[in-house]
Amino acid sequence: MATHxxxxxxxxxCTVAALTLTACGGSGDxxxxxxxxxxGFALNTGETEQGGIVTVLGTVDLxxxxxxxxxxxxxxxxxxxxxxQLTDFVYDEETGExxxxxxxxxxxxxxxxxxxxxxxxxxxxxxxxxxxEITSADVKYGIERSLDPALAIGSDFHxxxxxxxxxxxxxxxxxxxxxxxxxxxxxxxxxxxxxLAGFDAVAATQPFTPFPVGEVTVDQLDEQPISSGPYRxxxxxRGERLTLVRNEEWDPATDETRAASPDGYEFLFGIDGxxxxxxxxxxxxxxxxxxxxxxxxxxxxxxxxxxxDPAFQQRTVRSLPTCTMYMSMxxxxxxxxxxxxxxxxxxxxxxxxxxxxxxxxxMAEPAHTMLTPSVPERQEFDLYPTDQDLAIELLAExxxxxxxxxxxxxxxxxxxxxxxxxxVQQSLGAVGINVELNVIDAATFYEVIATPxxxxxxxxxxxxSSWMSGYPLLTPLFDGDNxxxxxxxxxxxxxxxxxxxxxxxxxxxxxxxxxxxAYGELDREIMEFAPVVPLVRETPLQxxxxxIGNAFASSARSGYVDYSSVGLKNPQG
Length: 573
Hints:
- By secondary structure, this protein is of the alpha+beta class.
- The chain folds into two domains: about 60-265, D-Maltodextrin-Binding Protein, domain 2; about 325-540, Dipeptide-binding Protein, domain 3, CATH 3.10.105.
- It has helices at about 75-80, 135-145, 200, 275-280, 305, 310-315, 340-350, 350-360, 390-395, 415-430, 445-450, 470-480, 495-505, 510-530; strands at about 35, 40-45, 55, 85-90, 100, 110, 115-120, 180-185, 185-190, 230-235, 240-245, 265-270, 290, 315-320, 325-330, 365, 405-410, 435-440, 460-465, 530-540, 540-545, 550, 565-570.
- A six-stranded mixed beta sheet has the order 16-20-15-19-17-18. A five-stranded mixed beta sheet has the order 10-11-12-3-13, with helices on one face. Strands 6-7-9-8 form a four-stranded antiparallel beta sheet, covered by helices on one side.
- A hairpin with a 5-residue loop joins strand 6 and strand 7.
């Protein structure tokens, strides 16, 4: 396997998926302060004021505080509070559209004619938490630091930069990359290994976080980040608590993407999901200023209670269906290397049962494709409708008798994920495939399944992107050149030469519209090989306390409530 990876999208970024939202009046006490959907859930929980502390209740600790290493929706949401990159996404609640704007940079980058060279200019007034100025050299250092093999388990889309795939990182090669030039303290120029018209989206990923040149050890940031954003870490006890306080050196005049109205945030970990629900429903005392974390969608068992009272619904936000939950199948496994077996498994899985396990139609919808609904030129198709008799026939054609095949399914240690896995287990059991569940700690799950030496035959996971294109949604998962020893996003280890060639052909298309059509076709071409089983697109329900304002589902934050946008309606309350 390759030790360096091709450019691919971060898990923590998500594609815009349009929900049809019909505004109507609520019936609770705060009806005038929220806009609700036709299902009664809040579109936005109301205006906020400056001040106060927002508490976030969660089951799962953060995977990493180091932005080179963390790469899931929740941790990327937290990163938005303490780190900044060259660009960022602004989400328009009314239109559902995303816009890329400058974050550290004055605006999106300027490219040459063939989009192989990109130039960014930094804003004035950018400082770290200790008051030092942020320079273009710091951005270069942060990127080169993230390429160190010990850290390169997070987002790696930046490996489109020329030479990045072969570079050993700044600790081993302090001379850095010639393809990243900093002619002065405000200017940074990137030379890419090939054209990429969407490089502004890459510049919004976590490896573009700046750090003071030469002053960060390999393992330092996982315990004590150096803030460039509106908050800094005051205290972190892994597995228990993360306390963020305001970074007084952050200048709001330089930042158009973060509201940052609270004085601080308190993240609490290790709380049972049902306990989170009951605390949010009760909303007693300080919990009026609390919200469920991005990973703590409402438990299915709590749905009826929330639906019974409009007041509960008006402080419950339904996330956007911006991610595809799917089951990877390790194509290098002897049995799973046969396309007929993979097709049989696709036909065997009852996706309506997985929807039920996820919480029902209010929380999920079946998925049949890997491109998400709002991707331009996406095709709608279902190559593998549930047909367990056909699945049994295909298995017989492949020479697999009933009860002969046993597979292990890796699953994240979260109740909803385990319920999804049990649903799949039952479906495959019905066609004579034995499935054993391997439950993995929720905080380390992604890291484990992204290490081929540690993964098993099957895994349930998800993929999202805020860039509406097949490039970040398909290439990371299905280009055979992306299979790596660590940080591997091609979990199925799918490596078909005809598909690899198609990726190369499509990436070379200069016209974006033509490229989108080609990716729409490629989605179907990939699924004809059945390397994965698309399962569901979730719309989790995320509750907030009655004093939490400006909570809305943002496609810039994997469809979840944006931590950096929320605040307190009454900081004295």
